[in-house]
């Protein structure tokens, strides 16, 4: 009895013991009631003009969170000799940053100095999924913006040539599990890949195979025609999945058919546990959506900043 009382008392005093300074899903309800609608409006407006906006926003949030936590560091401009993340090597598909700028401008008018750029980025990523037909979830907010952005930090991002042990290790360094890895890779249901990111699979794959033999041969030859060995077309590439404007589970179905873009996608089929998850998500869109939402909330809770930036591209 005493133990029960003591425990429930502790619970009242510290309702969320690990949540000191943590995020909450109604963070802006009173601080900035227009937050959700302004952000959503910015995403919808931009998407109606450019269908590639949602994929850009989703990937940008992932990059933000994997470097110094979700602190908006990916948004900062290079300054003087300091080359920012944005200008680091894997920046090839970072785009749609103007959507964050537009939302921030409108938010500074309604609630000046209140909304962090990191929260805007986390929330536009959710809205990017929603406008693409994917699931809705409440985004925990209350992040702060960071003051550091280094191009050299982009080495911490997983590379498309990673094998399964490298991927698992990379995610584990961020406190993310193997299930998170498989579920979040489903982000590749949206968007586009440039030739350079899957070149390793379609030319000089290894000593015995010019083309990755795990690729469907027809799919591989199509990729080879878009991306010849000495590709000169700057923006050439291919959609990440056949319905790349729709947030669905087609990525997993295609993966099982040898129609994935990156070695890192294919790697998910190389251990029994990850393969089982791929099959589960391929056969149930609901199961994928549930797992994706839960892993997104986990990833987007990696925080790190210290201020509310006035302009998302420069520190205060
Ligand atoms: C598992 C490790 C991952 C690797 C190795 C990886 C790698 C890549 C690469 C190389 C591209 C193509 C970039 C280009 O050519 O422009 C890409 C695109 C993309 N990735 Fe990932 N990614 C990973 C995880 C994720 C995660 C966790 C998400 C989000 C939840 C994500 C979302 C996207 C999206 C939406 C695109 C398309 C971007 C666009 O069309 O602009 N990726 N990824
Ligand atoms: C990517 O980096 C290069 C230089 O490294 C820079 O010229 C380019 O503008 C950057 N792209 C984006 C989208 O920031
Ligand atoms: C993955 O790649 C690393 C680095 O090249 C290598 O040491 C490791 O043995 C590879 N693991 C698997 C499962 O292929
Ligand atoms: C090339 O890759 C294939 C498929 O992964 C593999 O079976 C083969 O042993 C590899 N060859 C060499 C020389 O590594």
Mean pLDDT score:
92
Number of strands: 2
- Tell me the strand order in the biggest sheet: 1-2
Total number of helices: 14
**Euclidean distance between termini CA atoms:** 53 Å
| Range of strand content | under 5%
What gyration radius follows from the Cα positions, in whole Å?
21 Å
CATH topology term of the largest domain? Peroxidase, domain 1
Q: What's the architecture of the largest domain in CATH terms?
A: Orthogonal Bundle
SSE string, helices as H and strands as E: HHHHHHHHEHHEHHHH
Q: Report the major sheet.
A: 2 strands, antiparallel
**Unreliable stretches, pLDDT < 50, 5 or more residues?**
1-20
Associated small molecules: protoporphyrin IX containing FE, 2-acetamido-2-deoxy-beta-D-glucopyranose
What is the total number of structural domains? 2
Helix content: 40-55%
Specify the overall morphology: globular
CATH class membership of the largest domain = Mainly Alpha
Question: By helix and strand content, what is the structural category?
Answer: mainly alpha
Pfam families: peroxidase
Cofactor: Ca(2+); heme b
Binding site for Ca(2+) 1: 64, 69, 71, 73, 85
InterPro entries: Haem_peroxidase (IPR002016), Haem_peroxidase_sf (IPR010255), Peroxidase_pln (IPR000823), Peroxidases_heam-ligand_BS (IPR019793), Secretory_peroxidase (IPR033905)
């Amino acid at each position: 009895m005493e133990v029960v009382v003591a425990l429930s008392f502790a619970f009242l005093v510290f309702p969320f013991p690990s949540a000191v300074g943590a995020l909450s899903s109604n963070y802006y309800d009173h601080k900035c009631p227009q937050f959700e609608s302004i952000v959503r409006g910015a995403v919808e407006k931009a998407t109606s003009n450019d269908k590639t906006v949602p994929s850009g926003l989703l990937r940008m949030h992932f990059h933000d969170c994997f470097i110094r936590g979700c602190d908006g560091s990916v948004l900062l401009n290079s300054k003087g000799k300091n080359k920012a993340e944005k200008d680091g090597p894997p920046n090839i598909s970072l785009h749609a940053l103007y959507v964050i700028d537009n939302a921030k401008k409108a938010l500074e008018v309604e609630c000046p100095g209140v909304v962090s750029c990191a929260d805007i980025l986390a929330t536009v990523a959710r809205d990017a999924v929603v406008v693409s037909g994917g699931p809705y979830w409440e985004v925990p907010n209350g992040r702060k913006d960071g003051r550091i952005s280094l191009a050299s930090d982009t080495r911490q991002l997983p590379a498309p040539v990673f094998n399964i042990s490298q991927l698992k290790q990379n995610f584990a360094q961020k406190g993310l599990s193997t299930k998170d890895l498989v579920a979040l890779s489903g982000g590749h249901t949206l968007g586009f890949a440039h030739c350079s990111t899957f070149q390793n699979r379609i030319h000089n794959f290894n000593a015995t195979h010019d083309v990755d033999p795990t690729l469907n041969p027809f799919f591989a030859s199509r990729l080879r025609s878009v991306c010849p060995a000495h590709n000169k077309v700057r923006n050439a590439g291919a959609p990440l999945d056949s319905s790349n404007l729709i947030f669905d589970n087609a990525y997993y179905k295609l993966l099982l058919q040898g129609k994935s873009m990156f070695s890192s996608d294919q790697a998910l089929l190389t251990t029994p546990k990850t393969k089982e998850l791929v099959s589960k998500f391929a056969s149930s869109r609901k199961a994928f959506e549930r797992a994706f939402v839960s892993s997104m909330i986990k990833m987007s809770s990696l925080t790190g900043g210290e201020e509310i930036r006035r302009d998302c591209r420069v520190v205060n």
